[in-house]
Amino acid sequence: MPFMRAHGDPKTLNREPWLQTPRVQQAIRNAVYFRYQLIHYLYTLFHISRHDGLPIIRPMWYEFPEASDLFTNDKQFMFGHAILNAPKINAPSDEEIWTDFTHDVEIELPSESIWYSFNSKLQIPEEYYDAPKTLAVGDQETATFIRGGNILPMLKIYGQETALLNAIKNPLVLDIYSDENGYAIGILYLDDGMSMEYDTQNAQTLVHFFMHNITDVSVMKIDSDDNHYAPSCGKTIAEVNIYGVENQPTNVVDVWFNRNANFIYNKSAKSVHVKDLYLPTDCGFHQGEEHNLLQLIY
């Protein structure tokens, strides 16, 4: 979230992260890195909110107005258009915080979309749709689900980052969660993150990502609007993860550099991991027109 700190009553025990048990420290570390990973998604949501007035945190009925049974659901919410989160409401016992334990979290996933677990990257079985279900969530995990058909621009985390201002310089990892037809879309907003030049000098860029499933070929495309934020040249895509891939590709082509890309297909996870990339997000290359970046050939 944009604002994050430890809350508590003045009479409670010290709540600084380094004063907690090792397991709680690790959970806090995971949450902070998760926030770092999502920072571009979050920043893009704020741009959309400023431009179109759409809320960042949305009740379920906002995204799914036809699902009347979700109108009174106050145990989960949408974080933008793509992410559903069900917070852990029940606190663990004093004994549990020292051991491995799970939280029982109640979720209800609308069948208007397919859903993926953020933790496992696996598609959620249909029996979890359209009815409240209890899900066991590990103490180091969050009950976070991704709506199929979305591309999330994630910040690559190396595990040594001590400040977001340093981590923000890292390259991107595109996480592509295919819908039932193999399509996905996503956007990325870029400016300097510090000044008002996005407003006074139009120094901003909005990048669009597309995943099209064509016969025997899946194509990832990119374009950007007519504005151009020059430093976005330095923001590159280092990896692409595609989830919901039923069949193993025979080849993945880095179209931008006209070469075969290094990739790994995970049959059990139905995912493709493409690595060692150096794909540009903007730099004026994509203004006003689509360009192919990757092709998965089956």
UniProtKB/TrEMBL annotation:
Molecular function GO terms recorded: hydrolase activity, hydrolyzing O-glycosyl compounds
Domain Glycosyl hydrolase family 31 C-terminal span(s) in chain numbering: 53-152
Domain Glycoside hydrolase family 31 TIM barrel span(s) in chain numbering: 1-45
Keyword 4Fe-4S: no
Protein name listed in UniProt: Uncharacterized protein
GO biological process: carbohydrate metabolic process
Family from the record: Belongs to the glycosyl hydrolase 31 family.
Keywords tagged on the record: Glycosidase, Hydrolase
Entries under InterPro entries matching the protein: GH (IPR017853), Glyco_hydro_31_C (IPR048395), Glyco_hydro_31_TIM (IPR000322), Glyco_hydro_b (IPR013780)
